[in-house]
Design a protein that fits this description.
The chain is of the alpha/beta class and about 375 residues long. It has a single domain, classed as 3-Layer(aba) Sandwich (Rossmann fold). It is built from 11 helices and 15 strands. Strands 3, 4, 5, 6, 7, 8, 11, 12 and 13 form a 9-stranded mixed sheet that branches. Helix 3 runs parallel beside helix 5. The protein binds S-adenosylmethionine (SAM). The site of S-adenosylmethionine has 22 residues, from helix 5 and helix 7.
Amino acid sequence: MPWAKKIHVMQGSSEYFDLYWEEGNLLNGEPALPPSGVGRLSEITLPQWLDNYLFKIRSSSYRPDPRKFSLNLDNDLEDQLIYLGTYFPRSFAESYCVFDNLLRHSFFERLLRYKDKLRIYSLGCGCGGEVVGALQAMRDRAQYSGKIEVTGVDGNESALEIFAQVLQRMGKRQSLSLSVDTKLQIMDDTWQGLDAAPDSGYDLIICSKLINELYATSAMQGSLYLRLAQGLGHALAPEGVLYLADVSNAISLNGRQVYVPVLLNYELQQLSDQDDLVTISPWCCRAGSAHCTGQNCYTQLRVRAHHSQNRDILSKFCYRLLCRSEIAERVRPPVRYLRCNALINESALERDLTGCCPSRVFDPEHKTVDAFNLV
Ligand SMILES: C[S@@+](CC[C@H](N)C(=O)[O-])C[C@H]1O[C@@H](n2cnc3c(N)ncnc32)[C@H](O)[C@@H]1O
C-alpha cells in the first residue's frame, strides 16, 4: 500500500482503530457508492392529514420561486400560502428523514419511548415544516404519545399563526397531547437570544434555514452558526438534541459568494470541549477541528418529498445533529474501525468522486460508508 500510512491508536484497553492517511494524491480504485438511502430513509410521502391540510383546507399552492423565497421575513399571507405549499413539504421531509434516522438508533428510540413530556424550541420556525416533520417521525418510528410542548420563535406574524394552526391540527389528527406557544421576535444585533437562550431544559432545539437569511440581510453579524450552537446549546436538557439545518445555496457575504454548507461546517468545527456539544450526525464531522483536515468542506444530504401537487421533489440541504458529550458517547459511529470513505455528498460522488470526507482514512477495500447513517 505505497500511497497510505498506517498507525494503531489505542482506545481504552481493548479497542483500537487503524488510522490511515494519504501520502500521494492517488486514489487506488473508486469508492463504491452505496445504494441511496440504504439503512436510512431518504424519501417520504406527506401523510394524508398533512396533504389535506396544506392543499385542501389551506388551499396552499405549489409554486417554486427560489429567488423570492430566499428571504422570508417580510412575507405576507399570500406569500406564506405559497411557502406552505412549496417549501414547507421540503422542510418536513428533511427533518422527518433526519429524525427517523436518529430514532433508528436504539438509544434515542428508548429514550423517547420512556419520556412522558417533550419540550421543543424552534428558532426561525416559520410555518413549522421542520417541527411537524420531527414530531411525525417521533410518532411513526417511536410511537411517542406523551405530552409535547412546542415553542416557536419567528419575526413574521402570519408565519407564526400558521405554525400554531398546523400544529394544533396535527395534535387533533394524530391524537397528540400538544400545546403550542409562539413568540414574535425580530432578530438583529440588539437581540440577545442567540447568546443567551430564554429558557432551558429543551429536549429538542431546532433552527432550520434561518441563519442564511440573517447572514444574507446582515441582520446579525459574525459566526452565527457557532454562536447559535453555543447559545442554544445551554438551553438543551442533559439528553437533548440540537438540530441545525440550512439551505444548500450560496449567499453574498461581504461582497463574496459563500456556500452556506461550507460556512456552517467551518463554524461548527470550531466548537471546543468547553462547549460540550458533539456532532453525532453526519458522524464524519464528530471529531471536531482537532482531527479535521477538511478545507472548504461541506456535507449535503438529499431527500425526496412526494405529495398530491408534486409527485417528486428533490431537496438538498446541510445539517448537524449535536448533543452533549456524555450522550454522544452512547451513540458512537456505526463503523467499529475508523477505516472508511465517509460519504458526505452523494451528488458530488456521482460526478467526480469528491463526495467523501477529506479527512477520510482509507480502507484497503475502499469501502464507502454512509456518514448520514447512524446505525
Ligand atoms: C426559510 S424560512 C424557514 C422556516 C422554517 N424554519 C423551515 O425550515 O421551513 C426562514 C424563517 O426565518 C424568519 N426570519 C428571517 N429573518 C429573521 C429575523 N431577522 N428575525 C426573525 N425571524 C427571521 C422568516 O420569517 C422565516 O420564517
